[in-house]
Amino acid sequence: MQGRMITPVSELGSAPLFRTEITLDAGHGAVTAATLRISSLGVHEARLDGQPVGDDVLSPGWSSYEHRLRHLTHDVTGLLTGRAATVLTVLVGNGWHRGRLGFMGGRAFYGDRLGVIADLEITFADGHRQTVVTDETWTAGGSDVLGDDLYDGQTIDARRRSAKWYAVGGEPEWFLPVKVLDFDAGVLTPYISTPVTRQDVLTPVKVWQSPEGRTLVDFGQNLVGWIRFAATGPAGSEVRIRHAEVLEHGELGARPLRDAQATDRFILSGGEDFFEPTMTFHGFRYAEITGLPEPAFATVEAVVVHSDLRRTGTFACSDDLLNQLHSNVVWSTKGNFLDLPTDCPQRNERLGWTGDIAVFAPSAAFLFDTGPFLADWLADLAAEQRAADGLVPFVVPDVLKYLPHVPEFPDPDSTAFWSDAAVWVPWTLWRAYGDRAILENQYDSMTAHVRRVRTLLSPAGVWDTSFQFGDWLDPDAPPDDPAKAKADPGVVATAAYHRSATITAEVAALLGRERDAAEFGDLAARARAAFNEQYVSADGTIVSDCTTVYTLALVFGLVDDEAAAGRRLAELVADSGYRISTGFAGTPYILDALTRTGHLDVAYRLLLQRECPSWLYPVTMGATTIWERWDSMLPDGSINPGEMTSFNHYALGAVADWMHRVIGGIAPLEPGYSRVLIAPRPGGGLTWGRAGLDTRHGRIDVSWQLDDGELTVDVTLPAGVTGVLSLPGRDDAELGAGVHRATV
């Protein structure tokens, strides 16, 4: 880009509005093309003559700013057609660059100045080109945004708005000069992903007075975004909106937000005002609204925002609770795929925790086209990793390195499941979409992770020498110590290391890196041998003898006698009363471990359990997203007393992957679903199921019906896709493109 990064010469006491007037070069005919390339330190909104240049919000999002600052390209030809002059304005808010980040307090970790950099290139009918760039000729002034923060909310004063901002020749006299910032333009890079946009609008399902006399609004769905409305009222009067995910004792349940204020304030001008706080976002279902004139409640609506991802996968079955569970997974994906995969969207955190996406990626890649979205995030992961000698941090972007030391955590190093995202996420994308580029781009990151972990192994060859989150959030762990799980952390970590080494060996072979393939294959074999020597007794008992260790040993291919391990796993599940007894590491895989060892009935009993802890308990409690804890809300309607409690966390929703493959019956046999396994396995009293997936080759649809012991399966495969139909009690059948029906 030719522009310079500019900032106001002094702080303005509000979000700065950058401005320049442009006179189009005359004598060259009509404008035939116009392109705006733009980025910012902070989040920006660009307008030409007051009209937004695009649909995006919260751009340029949050990347690892030290290494990558993304820019957007907008086609603005239509906004310049027929004009002799125009005004380009850019409003810049704090966003992730200068706002609060993390759960330990602090802000402005990336810099204390907001800025914008832009190029506007205009092409005329005769081929003449005019270029406008950000430089010292621009000005900047105070805006109507008096305060903005992602955690705390936004304050807008409509009395400060002026039509002059967007009018040619109308620059307000109080606008000040700008100066050029010392900025490394080499970090600028185009988006790989798509930007954040408005995705949906919900209207209230209920408005009422709380026991304390507060006006509460229920939108019927836990969502991520903001509330907008139109109002007319006395100049200077204030409307305040507080947000929360749940109610407790009839009032907003705000304690889980910790110190995030999640409050927007709007000051009326005395005329007709419209408010939309686009420089913050909240995770909420409920809102407490104060000071809004009664007629304006008819205009209140919630705007859902997230990265602009195309929906690809669908699922439904005869059990309404399972359908709601699946809907909860979808909504948690939406809410936490806001520019990067986050852990939660509401409290003072909202970080790109690597462990969450490591286990959830298969579910997400079925539900949405996540290829570009996760490739963008993986580019940040690789950048952070290169700067840290191969260490994959807990979160990407790694803002934790700027926070005060957390006493519970030792100095950071590679951590099982979390750091394994470097290997597991690219592998998931390869399996889902069949694009070798993701493996080629991430290959150095994958190998660096495995090689670093090799240096952390004990002399016995197992990974038991450094900090581990382990089977995080085991339901039997104390509420204030979620890492205190039943599963031995060395067992969990060594299993994860074996899986990463195995995958990396396969990737090396696929890419023709024969020496590397041998190296990583050897590491995987050694890890497996060490696992069995150190953790598996002669009778097949695995150290700590709990559901998670058998689950990981089975699914990650670590034991020879799978039948015995499967029997012990099924016994432990029965001993738990078919309630969840696994945490973060075991939960995504336990149904697969049971299914592959012939315990499908046990898997269904576990899936369909309604008592806490279970997947369906939150559904029975009215959840519309996936909870962080199995008991984020207790049966009496009170919130879990632990400090860490979120009602929108997708990690435990990784069960959707099993639902898609085993109930829905769609699984890839070859990367990108060029060859597909159609293998629905009814159980648990289900009488019908269906799933559909838009692949790179076209749409795959599977539906089945169970009547009086007769199973009828209908399959549609697109051109270029072959399949294997696997049904209970009959030989597998080859399928070609087209429509098929089978009965058993």
TrEMBL record:
InterPro entries for this protein: 6-hairpin_glycosidase_sf, 6hp_glycosidase-like_sf, Alpha_rhamnosid, Bac_rhamnosid6H, Bac_rhamnosid_C, Bac_rhamnosid_N, Rhamnosid_concanavalin
Domain of life the protein comes from: Bacteria
Start and end residues of each Bacterial alpha-L-rhamnosidase N-terminal domain: 30-198
Keywords: Hydrolase
Segments forming domain Alpha-L-rhamnosidase C-terminal: 665-734
Positions in coiled-coil regions: none
MF terms (GO), sorted A to Z: alpha-L-rhamnosidase activity
Pfam families: Bac_rhamnosid, Bac_rhamnosid6H, Bac_rhamnosid_C, Bac_rhamnosid_N
Residues making up the signal peptide according to the UniProt record: none
Domain (Alpha-L-rhamnosidase six-hairpin glycosidase) ranges: 310-663
Residues spanning the membrane: none
GO BP, sorted A to Z: carbohydrate metabolic process
Enzyme Commission number: 3.2.1.40
Domain (Alpha-L-rhamnosidase concanavalin-like) ranges: 210-306
Catalytic reaction equation(s): Hydrolysis of terminal non-reducing alpha-L-rhamnose residues in alpha-L-rhamnosides
Protein name: alpha-L-rhamnosidase
Species, as recorded: Actinoplanes xinjiangensis
